[in-house]
Amino acid sequence: MVVKHYADITAEPVATPGAEKVSIRWLLGKDSPAPHFWLRLFEVRPGGHSPYHTHPSEHEIFVLEGSGRINAKGGGRPLQPGCFALVEPGEEHQFENTGAVPLKFLCLVPKE
Amino acid sequence: MVVKHYADITAEPVATPGAEKVSIRWLLGKDSPAPHFWLRLFEVRPGGHSPYHTHPSEHEIFVLEGSGRINAKGGGRPLQPGCFALVEPGEEHQFENTGAVPLKFLCLVPKE
């Protein structure tokens, strides 16, 4: 059993092209015994965003703090604390901070 | 793509033997297009707890609000907002509210 607080995990800058002012904490990743899916916490600082991109695996996300928008084909949809989303495999998407404080959200992906 | 707020999802009482004052919201479950794992939000009211039990699949949890304890072989470990846990397959566990306000946490499981 693993029991920790997310603040115990170092936030690493995301260097992917198209990512601006984004950091990631790998809460349960490849160095954990998680058998099927990985838990990460993203923080997007004001003015920042993730890349607008697509990939073959899904995201399940849950917004903890801040406000933002998920941009996708057909437009953007607002995000606030308590919002959750499923980005299905192959769907274009981008997470953008539209507020004045960090946007923090959990993002789960299947294990590679 | 699914984008919703957890308050849009009905909280259902958990009737499992051993569960006291627990409700569940299925945010992304069998009626969603989630391909690999399911996202649920549990609420344990003051004085309540989940069953002390075990099962072959893991839990990944993240605490949103309230305070509590995860009881397991060897004792209990405190939970507060921002805590996350991996309950590995086959590990005995119970979630207990030790505070005066609802304990809310996300709990993810592999798709059945």
Please give a structural write-up.
In chain A, the strands form two sheets. In chain A, strands 2-3-4-10-5-8 form a six-stranded antiparallel β-sheet, with no helix packed on it. In chain A, β3 and β4 form a beta hairpin. Chain A contains no helices and ten strands. The mean pLDDT of chain A is 97. The first copy, chain A, has a single domain (6-110), classed as Jelly Rolls (Sandwich), CATH 2.60.120. The two termini of chain A are 21 Å apart. Helix content of chain A is 0%, strand content 55%. The first copy, chain A, has strands at residues 2-5, 12-13, 20-28, 37-49, 59-65, 68-72, 75-79, 83-87, 94-97, 103-110. Chain A is globular, with a radius of gyration of 13 Å. Chain A is an all-beta fold. Chain A binds chain B through residues 1-7, 27-28, 32-37, 39, 58, 60, 62, 64, 70, 72, 77, 79-80, 82-89, 91, 93, 106, 108, 110, and chain B through 1-7, 27-28, 32-37, 39, 58, 60, 62, 64, 70, 72, 77, 79-80, 82-89, 91, 93, 106, 108, 110. β1 of chain A pairs antiparallel with β8 of chain B.
